[in-house]
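I'll show an entry:

:::
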Amino acid sequence: MANRTLADHIMEFPNVLAEDHCRMLIERFESSADQEICERESGHSFVQLNLTQHWPEQSKLLTHLFFDYFNKYQLSVHAAFWPPRFSFEHLRIKRYLPNGRDSFPVHVDVMDHVAARRFMTAIIYLNTGAGGETVFPNLGVSVEPVTGKLVAFPTNWLFPHAGLPPQSAPKYILHTYLCYPALDAASAPTL
């Protein structure tokens, strides 16, 4: 087995979600009253919907899809120390408008004690558009948003990344994290 680089731990899987399913999720998101604005001054800006909370039937279906691709990821990178038990953080749909403001500047997905449970990130792009790439500036990697594509990568400080602003049309993503189980494992949903 050849030596792996950090960039090899950013994996793309095309066509994991059918185009008509992606379109249905976008249309349902746009007609939902459960959207919430997420903004930080000099930070990220987008609108999201907690799919796990508001659409449990879709959450169950999509959690199994994410699970399948996390398993493929684990096998591909030969992750010998993958936790035997884990849970999912809530699935969320996020929308970034081409308004010059919506984006997610360079960050890592573990920055405090609460988020330290996260060990993997996964994003499914729900549409294709100009701009809106997920970039890993320290690793020279740029992932183009293409309808139905999943990208997975570790959450830690070795993988700073940014969600660039879309250029001409809104960008929609489906997003979740894999998490280490809570100390009281009986209280955490696991697979």
